[in-house]
Amino acid sequence: MAKKKVNRKKQLKREWAKLKKAGRERLEQVVDVAETVVDKAVEQVKEAVAEIKEQAATSLEDFQALPELEAIPASRLETFYQAGIQSVADFATWTEKDLVALKGIGAATIKQLKEKGIALKD
Fold it and tell me: Which of 5, 67, 89, 94 is the most buried (most CB within 10 A)?
């Protein structure tokens, strides 16, 4: 039986096409993995930014605009803010005695806070 003559040029073209296809498939896999990694990283950054925003102190204007502190004079709120009370939750770490020790804060202000439902440290 005679050996079939092989066209080397066609054979090389086929091999080249297989390699290109394999390369594209591998490239697509790498791109998919990279997109997944990037998506996870973006999500982590978004979560970190949200956490930082939650922890960041609000501005004095934001603190004064809180609905729970409505009707409390701005000067009293400024005193609280300068003392480190920058959210309603921060009041829970202060006792009545600590608050009264602040300049301009008296029993009437404490009464207003309690009427607003703001909890103080016992």
Answer: 94
